[in-house]
Task: structure prediction
Amino acid sequence: MLNFISFGSGSSGNCYYLFTKTDGLLIDAGVGIRTLKKYFREYDLSFSNIQNVLITHDHADHVKSVGRLSCDYGLNIYATHRVHVGIEKNYCVRGKVSPDRLKLVENGVSLHLGEFVVTPFHIPHDSMDNVGYRIEHNGVVFCLMTDVGSVTQEMRPFIAEAHYLVIEANHDVEMLAKGPYPQHLKERILGPTGHLSNTDCAMALVENASPRLRYVWLCHLSGENNHPELARKTIEQLLREHGIVAGKDFALEVLKRKSPTGIYCLEKDDV
Result:
C-alpha cells in the first residue's frame, strides 16, 4: 500500500514523503532533521525506511537538510545537475551533499528507485533549475509540482496522468497587490518564473485534469498573500463554473504550511 504525508509546505520549509512498508521516498528536505525525526516518531514512521531523496530545486526552503541526510544518514540525493550546483552555492545550506551520495536526474528520463518509477519534468521558477516529479507505484500515479511560475505545455500531460496531485496555489492576486511586499517582489511572484496563483492553479485543473484524478492537495501557500480557506473556496468556485465539483469529481485539500498533513492511503483499488 502506498502512503503520502506532508511534513510542511510553504516558505518555512517543504518536505513530502511517499512510502510503503518496505520503501520510502522523501521529496524535498526543507525541514530540519530534528523536526523531521520528531514528526516521524509522532506518526509512528521509521526514519530508516527512507531510501532516497528527490529535490525539486535549490532554494533553501526545499534543501535545508540535504547535507545531513546525505552525510549523516547515507541517503542518495537526486536532483538535476543545475540544482546540485545551486545547492553547492547556497550559503543557507551549511552541510553540502556528500559527493558519493550526489545522484543526477534528467528531465523526461524515468528511473527506478526501489519500488518507485520516477520521471522528472521541468517547471519554470527563478531558481538554478526546478523540476516536478511523476512517481508511479504499482499503477498508481502521484505527481508533485511546486514553485510553479507558469503551467507549460510540458507540464500538462503530467497533470492529466495523475491519480493524486500536489500542486501549488501560492497566492491570491488581490491580496498580493494590496499586501506589504515591495513592488519588485510582487512582480517576481507574478512573473512567469515566480509562483502560481489560486486562479491559475484552478485553471490548470480545469484544463488538464482527467477523470482518473482522485485527490488534489494545494501546496506552498503564502502566509502573507493567501489563506487556506480562500485558496480552497476560490479554486472550488472556478472548478464549479466549469462543471467540476470538488468533493465529488475529486477531493481537494490544503496542505498545512508549518506542520504535518496526513497520512493518506493511496490505494490501487481507488484508481
Remarks:
- The mean pLDDT is 96.
- The domain at 2-270 is CATH 3.60.15.10 (Metallo-beta-lactamase; Chain A).
